[in-house]
Structure formats: structure tokens, C-alpha cells
Design a protein that fits this description.
Chain B: One of its GO terms (cellular component) is plasma membrane. The structure holds two protein chains of two kinds. Chain A has one domain: Orthogonal Bundle (MetI-like fold), CATH 1.10.3720. Helix content of chain A is about 75%, strand content about 0%. Chain A contains 14 helices and no strands. The longest helix of chain A is centred in the middle third of the chain and has 38 residues. Chain B has two domains: about 220 residues, Rossmann fold; about 90 residues, no CATH class. Chain B is built from eleven helices and twelve strands. In chain B, the strands form two sheets. Chain B has an eight-stranded mixed β-sheet, with helices on both faces. In chain B, helix 3 packs across helix 4, helix 4 crosses helix 6 and helix 6 packs parallel to helix 7. The two termini of chain B are about 40 Å apart. Classes of the chains: A mainly alpha, B alpha/beta. Chains A and B meet through helix 10, helix 11 and helix 14 of A and helix 2, helix 3 and helix 6 of B.
Chain lengths: ~350, ~325
């Protein structure tokens, strides 16, 4: 298991390395650039040339790349030119990444907490009203674009009903102490309950919007998987032992039905970023999604590079976690790998 | 009084939008304490469904069960789900056909044995674990302590079936139902498992219902045999009587279709002609009539009743208008 984990972590390094090269080339090939974005259309040739030189963009691309790698290895990813000009990319990352992580985490928690029980119930009452209703709503969940749902939720629950704030991570009036950058966690750690609560309230609408797709997928996979498993011979064996229904449900049905669901959760968590960009835009939520959108608009190379590389790293890490947890719940994989 | 009295048991599957299908059509038989009774017949004759109905393991929806199945005087068919759960695993054990798919792949062998002990014998996890190792040892699994922490895929087919037998016998049930327990196993392993079952039921005085399509299994194990056809018992006799003088043409056909090593070279096998799909409903006559070499005109007009054999002495019941002559049957015995 340990050797496997180490091998996978090495793979992660290779993925990030190759991706950095591709990203670097790709970003440079986009039309426009930070100079035009910063100075505007009407800048003089001289000032453009000066800025180009200042940013090091006049050098050959491979020189730029190796300089970037050299600095990156010592933790310096450059200075933002567009998102928050003057701040270091690392600083922006540290501000924004926890926000998106917090949002994604809540979205996945909602998807799993609702999707798995509902999937189980729908399967057990197959063809009943609950089953039909949830199958249809999960279809809607996948089909409706996330930004549209986000907009709808904002309009109804924040603007019309006023139950939730319309934007941001925290009300301005609240004086919260920052510890980790995860606002809800900070509030709990410092026992500033009002700050924790306020941060949570800000998270709910975007998290619900963001959870629509993972919820639908988790629900459907759970339902299909439970339907498969309840007909398995070993469930009948469990019944023949006279075990109580809760034991059969937990130990014999759910434990097996969860195998494909775990994989799904991993993949969906990785895919959340795409939805996060749109949701964060709608709710003016200062996470990496919003920073990415802004970064592209202003061709902020350092910020884009760091954020995308980290997102890719997180994606690979999550899939590693999924594979490891898979080995934990499925003994067949555990022994096949030989790493006992 | 018999340990299990099955009377007129019928099981009808009724799916929405489909014609109801009668899988078991008035089956009656007894199992005495410690006795081994065979239910024999080809696929689809209702033998498995009979056992599942007795165990209360059929789906609740779309299935209609009628008749009676009394276990030690208690009517099993009218017990509540909870009462039945208390009985299953404790008074009634069951071993299934495919030992790989019948064990949960993600739960250790140990837990799959101990959970039934914890459920019915009020044992702690620790006591149950000691007991489980003993059980595994008793069914001939070597190094049982290590096996407890292993998972089904780490065991061979024969070992898995041994583990399932250990599970079924864990609470010392008075009745064990074995549904084709050797079908999925290698021939050499089959013999071992059968010998194990025979030993165990003898030592523990457990009654056994052996469900099989394999007459070899019946010959080696059963005290009494019920031959099923299309959901009804067509012949019942003691093992020796049945093999020596099969009276129902179906039984006769089953025995005749077994390939024999001592048959002359080049002799063709003699299968029963046709298939189950040729059957006529029991209500209009004998379901086997279209495939029966002995069929008379009455066979497709009058449903034969289950009656004592009029010709051959002994406790035999027969559902046939025109049974195979004992002489013909005896001839065959001589020929072999």
C-alpha cells in the first residue's frame, strides 16, 4: 500500500510537470497578453516595450519557462498582473483556494448526504412516487446548467425572499479572526460563532447550486448499484441467517453498493471546478473560480499557471484518495495489489 | 409427528402485465427428525422455489403462497417477518448453490460466521470468534484461525462451500436445506462436500432436505426421495425402492438417461424427449403426458392423483395412470 501510494505521488509530480509545460506554451499562444491588458489599446510602443521587458516577456519562451520553473521550485510563482496587480500569485492562491475548497467540500457533502440515502430509498421503493420523483429531479439536476440554477437560487432565495445573502463570503460588518483561511472553520476555532454562522450562510446557496450535478450522479449510481446488489445471492444468504434488516442493509447491501459510488464521488469532486467557476461568478464568491475568470480576461499568466496547476494537482490527489479508500472497502483489490 | 410437514404448498408468481405462473402446485411431503429427504427434478420443476417458500425467502410482492408448512407444529407460512427472522439461521439453515456468489465479497469469512452466532446465540464478538474457528475446523477448513480474517475470494470453491455449510450449521438448526450444494463444484470436490454433509447431519441429527437434479447425489445421501415434475410431486419412495423399481415414467426416464460406463460402446444415450415447454397444465391432465412414452388417452384428459402404488409393495406414492411395469424396470436392472 505504501509503495503504491509513493508511486502514485511520483506520478502526480510528472503530471504537474508536463502540465506546467503545456500550460505555459498554451497561455503564451493566446491572443493578446498582459501588456495589452494592463496598458490598454492606446499605449505607446515605448511603454509597451518597457513593460514587456519588465515582465520578461521579451525573452525566448523556453528561457521564460525555465526561469519560471527555477523560481517556482523555490516557491515563487511570480507577481499577479491582472487579478490583484502587485500581489504575489502565491498570496492570491492562499486567499482564494480555501474559499473554493470550502465551497466544494460543502457541495460534495450535500450531494453525498442527500444522494446516497435518497438513492437507497428510491431503490428499495422502486417504482413508487419517491423513486419517480427523485429520478426526474436528478435528471433535471444534470440537465440544468449550473450557472442558470445558481442564478435562479440567488433570485428566489436571496433577492426575493431575502433568506440568504446575495454575494461574497462574509458580511463586511463582522470582525473575524483569520486562522486557516477557511472561514467557517476559523469561526469555530476562534469560537466566533457569529462569523462561522455568517460564513456558512454565505456558502449555502452557491453550494446547493454547485451540488446539483454531483448529487444527481451520486443519487443515480447509488440507486442503480443498490438495485443490483439486493438481488445478489449473498443478500439472500444474509436473509437465510435470519439477520435483522438494519444489519443486512448496512453490512451486506450498502457496503457492496458503495463501491461504484466512491469512484463516482471522486470523479465528481474533481469535476466540481468547472461548476465552481460559474457559480462563483454568479455569487461574486472570491474563490479560485472567480480568479480564473478574471485571470483569463486580463491574461494574468502567473496566477493562471499556479491556480490551474493546483487544480490539476488536487484532481490527481482526490483520485489517489479514491483509489486508496477503494482498497480499504474492497478486500479483493487490497490483496491483488500485493501490498498487504 | 414429523419435524416438517408440507401440505398442498403452492407458489404463484404474478407480475403486473404478465400471466400468473404457478411454480409450485400443491406439493406435500414430510421430513422426520434426522431424516434426509431428496427433492429431485429438472430445472424449473419448482424444487428451489419450494425450499425458498419454506424458508420465507421469496419476495413479498408478486408472489402468492398457499397451503401449509408446519415446522415442529408451528405454521411457518403465517409467521410474521420478525418471527421468521428469529427462526431462520437458528431452527432452519440453508446452503445455496453457488458458493462464490453466496458469500459477501467484502465481508471477512470470520464476520460472516460470527454474525449468525451473535444474532441467535447471544454470543459476544469474542466468544463467537472462538466458536467460528471451531466450526470452520469441523467442516474441514485447515488453519481456521487464519481463515477467519480472510475474504471469500481467497478461498477455493470447495472451501467456500464448507464455510457456507459452517454458517448454516452454526446455530445447530434442526432442519438444513441444501439447494444443489455441489452443482458449482468440481466433481472431486462434490464427493467431499456430500460426504461432509452426510457426516454432519448424522452427527448432529439434523434433518436435511437435499435439492438436486443429480440422481447420484440422491443415491448417496437420501433416505426418501420426492420426484418433482412441473411443480408437483409425481413419485415418492425410499431411495432403494426408487432406484430399483422406478415406476413413474419420468423417474424411469431420469434414471435411464444417466450415461453408464458399462453400457456397450456406441450405444446412444437415452434422454427424455422434449422439454418442459411441452407441458400441458395439470388441470387438464398429466403435465408430463406430451413427453411420456407410456401416455394413454386418459393422460391428457384426467389429472392423475397421488396414490399408493397398486402393484409394487412398499410405502410408495405415485401420480400416474400408466406406470412403468416393474418387470421392465427390473429388466433394466439386470441388463446393467
Amino acid at each position: 500500500m505504501l509503495r503504491y501510494t509513493i508511486r502514485r505521488l511520483l506520478q502526480l509530480l510528472i503530471v504537474v510537470g508536463v502540465l506546467s509545460l503545456l500550460l505555459f506554451a498554451w497561455l503564451r499562444s493566446l491572443p493578446g497578453g498582459p501588456v495589452s491588458a494592463l496598458l490598454g489599446e492606446r499605449a505607446t510602443t515605448e511603454s509597451r516595450a518597457r513593460l514587456t521587458e519588465e515582465l520578461g516577456l521579451d525573452q525566448p519562451i523556453f528561457v521564460q519557462y525555465f526561469k519560471f520553473v527555477g523560481r517556482a521550485l523555490s516557491g515563487d510563482f511570480g507577481v499577479s498582473t491582472g487579478v490583484q496587480p502587485g500581489d504575489s500569485a502565491t498570496e492570491i492562491f492562499l486567499q482564494r483556494f480555501p474559499a473554493t475548497l470550502e465551497l466544494s467540500f460543502l457541495a460534495i457533502v450535500i450531494a453525498v448526504a442527500v444522494g446516497i440515502p435518497l438513492g437507497y430509498l428510491a431503490a428499495r421503493r422502486r417504482g413508487g412516487w419517491l423513486d419517480n420523483l427523485s429520478v426526474v429531479s436528478s435528471l433535471i439536476g444534470v440537465a440544468v446548467p449550473v450557472f442558470f440554477l445558481a442564478f435562479l437560487l440567488k433570485q428566489v432565495f436571496a433577492v426575493d425572499l431575502g433568506w440568504f445573502p446575495t454575494a461574497g463570503r462574509q458580511e463586511g460588518g463582522i470582525d473575524a479572526t483569520r486562522v486557516t483561511g477557511f472561514f467557517v472553520l476559523d469561526g469555530i476555532l476562534t469560537q466566533e460563532w457569529d462569523a462561522a454562522w455568517d460564513a456558512l450562510v454565505h456558502l449555502i446557496l452557491p453550494a446547493v447550486a454547485l451540488s446539483s450535478i454531483p448529487f444527481s450522479v451520486v443519487f443515480r449510481i447509488t440507486r442503480a448499484s443498490v438495485l443490483d446488489v439486493v438481488d445478489e445471492d449473498y443478500v439472500r444468504t444474509a436473509e437465510s441467517k435470519g439477520l435483522t434488516t438494519p444489519v443486512i442493509r448496512r453490512r451486506h447491501v450498502l457496503r457492496n453498493a458503495m463501491l461504484p459510488v466512491v469512484t463516482t464521488i471522486g470523479l465528481q469532486t474533481g469535476a466540481l471546478l468547472a461548476g465552481a467557476v460559474l457559480t462563483e461568478k454568479v455569487f461574486a464568491f472570491p474563490g479560485i473560480g472567480q480568479a480564473l475568470a478574471l485571470g483569463f480576461e486580463r491574461r494574468d499568466y502567473p496566477v493562471l499557471l499556479l491556480l490551474i496547476l493546483c487544480a490539476a494537482g488536487v484532481f490527481v490527489l482526490i483520485n489517489l484518495l479514491v483509489d486508496l479508500s477503494y482498497a480499504l472497502i474492497d478486500p479483493r483489490i487490497r490483496t491483488r495489489g500485493g501490498g498487504r | 409427528m414429523a419435524l416438517l410437514e408440507v401440505r398442498d404448498l403452492s407458489v404463484v408468481f404474478q407480475r403486473r402485465g404478465e400471466r400468473p405462473f404457478t411454480a409450485v402446485d400443491g406439493v406435500s411431503f414430510d421430513v422426520e427428525p434426522g431424516q434426509t429427504v431428496g427433492l429431485v427434478g429438472e430445472s424449473g420443476c419448482g424444487k428451489s422455489v419450494t425450499s425458498l417458500a419454506i424458508m420465507g425467502l421469496l419476495a413479498k410482492r408478486g408472489v402468492k403462497i398457499s397451503g401449509s408448512a408446519k415446522f415442529d407444529g408451528t405454521e411457518l407460512l403465517s409467521l410474521s417477518d420478525r418471527q421468521m427472522r428469529d427462526r431462520r439461521g437458528r431452527d432452519l439453515g440453508m446452503v445455496f448453490q453457488d458458493p462464490l456468489s453466496s458469500l459477501n465479497p467484502v465481508v471477512s469469512i470470520g464476520l460472516q460466521v460470527t454474525e449468525v452466532l451473535e444474532r441467535h446465540r447471544d454470543m459476544s464478538r469474542k466468544q463467537a470468534s472462538v466458536e467460528a474457528a471451531e466450526l470452520l475446523e469441523k467442516v474441514g477448513i485447515p488453519d481456521p484461525k487464519r481463515r477467519l480474517s480472510e475474504y471469500p475470494h481467497q478461498l477455493s470453491g470447495g472451501m467456500r462451500q464448507r464455510a457456507l455449510i459452517a454458517i448454516a450449521l452454526a446455530c445447530r438448526p434442526r432442519l438444513l436445506i441444501a439447494d444443489e450444494p455441489t452443482t458449482a463444484l468440481d466433481v472431486t470436490i462434490q464427493a467431499q462436500i456430500l460426504a461432509l454433509l452426510a457426516d454432519l447431519v448424522r452427527d448432529t441429527e439434523t434433518a436435511l432436505i437435499m435439492i438436486t437434479h443429480d440422481l447420484g447425489v440422491v443415491a448417496g445421501l437420501c433416505d426418501e426421495v420426492n420426484v418433482l415434475y412441473a411443480g408437483r410431486v409425481v413419485e415418492r419412495a425410499g431411495r432403494h425402492d426408487l432406484f430399483r423399481v422406478p415406476r413413474h415414467p419420468y423417474t424411469h426416464g431420469l434414471l435411464a438417461s444417466i450415461p453408464r460406463l458399462d453400457a456397450p460402446r456406441g450405444e446412444r444415450l437415452s434422454p427424455i424427449k422434449g422439454s418442459v415447454s411441452d407441458n400441458i397444465p395439470w388441470t387438464t391432465g398429466c403435465a408430463f403426458a406430451p413427453r411420456c412414452p407410456n401416455a394413454l388417452d386418459t393422460c391428457v384428459q384426467v389429472t392423475p392423483a397421488m396414490e399408493p402404488d397398486p402393484v409394487v409393495a412398499g410405502p410408495r406414492l405415485l401420480r400416474c395412470h400408466n406406470p412403468v411395469e416393474p418387470a421392465t424396470a427390473a429388466e433394466q436392472e439386470i441388463m446393467s
